[in-house]
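Is flavin-adenine dinucleotide placement plausible here? Inputs below.
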Amino acid sequence: MTQHTDVVVVGGGQAGLAVGYHLRRLGIEHLILDAQTAAGGAWQHTWDSLRLFSPAAYSSLPGRLMPGQEGHLYPDAGHVVAYLADYEKRYELPIQHGVWVDAVHDEGTLLRVETDSGTWRARAVVSATGTWTRPFVPAVEGRQEFTGRQLHTVHYKNPAEFAGQRVVVVGGGNSGAQIAADLTGQAAVTWVTQRPPRYLADDIDGRALFDAATARRKTLDEGRTDTGGVASLGDIVAVPPVRAARDAGLLAARPMFARLTARGAEWADGIRQDADAVIWTTGFRPALAHLAGLRLRGTRGHIATTGTRASEDPRLHFLGYGDWTGPASATLIGVGRTAREAAREIRTLLS
Ligand code: FAD
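Reply from A.M.:
I modeled the complex. Tokens:
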């Protein structure tokens, strides 16, 4: 049976909820379809000790300040999940969990959204599927030869399963720093980064990342030269566990190795490090497979956008994913602004 609604939002993580909030405020009929059986998007699946890089009040979606977490300036993922679950309920967002969207097709004036639980026809679609389902591991020589365990950020839970092991952590971002720090008490960690780790100054945190993204937004809006936004500040927020490990001298990073061998990592100068496990904290790609049938142009895994709108199809918007859908669109505090813009454009389209 085919059902109709004005807007289908694919994905019910923070980006999907933020646009739901704005669509609701504008009185636009919509439906949010989310593959997860419970609220919280990707936050439900992160490692146990993950800390946000922004204080709670700076990690809020539109309309509702994230409450503080007792005893923690930087909340954990469980706190975010509880906040998102409350957000869904508070604003009575029309969300269906446990629904996987297979494909979106062009049907002339309408878009047909095919799912594992039925088909919807809509006048506009917002894609907010995140990146968590598409972990990225670089092509490194010898990856298939390594006989130890290889896993990505998405598979890491806690250090207990690596107790007493030699672990190589690859990646110089927040995930790499936090996971390397998490392991230091229990495993022998070799942290490998493509360039020397760049910490934000200790007295600034994710708030500064957001300010930088806002400044970048202003720069772009005014047609001035791009400042590079958050990238100009550094990559790693020294949340307390990272700072403690770094200050204890346990987070000395080594440059990227040249190859993996059966036993571990090998650098160009012949130095070797045997390992039981390699953890790739090497990022993600946007989850866009459901849009393949629309055959939209794009580069490097992105689809060409004007603001949040697909340049080739005004019925389709993107939220989250990364800076190509708006500065800081892939953060809790940043997505609200791009969600508001998308909802307004959709209102114009529908009217
Ligand atoms: P997601 O949370 O991934 O939600 C997407 C939803 O869409 C999921 O529920 C998914 O199941 C669903 N979905 C996917 N495909 C389909 C489909 N085909 N059909 C139906 N549903 C589908 N941001 C901050 O602001 N502060 C931080 O401290 C911070 N720390 C981070 C730490 C890590 C390790 C990572 C990876 C990211 C962090 N981020 C942080 C960035 C960002 O806030 C998160 O990645 C956030 O989860 C992105 O939200 P989202 O809604 O875009 O995607």
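Short version: The first strand starts at residue 2 and ends at 10.
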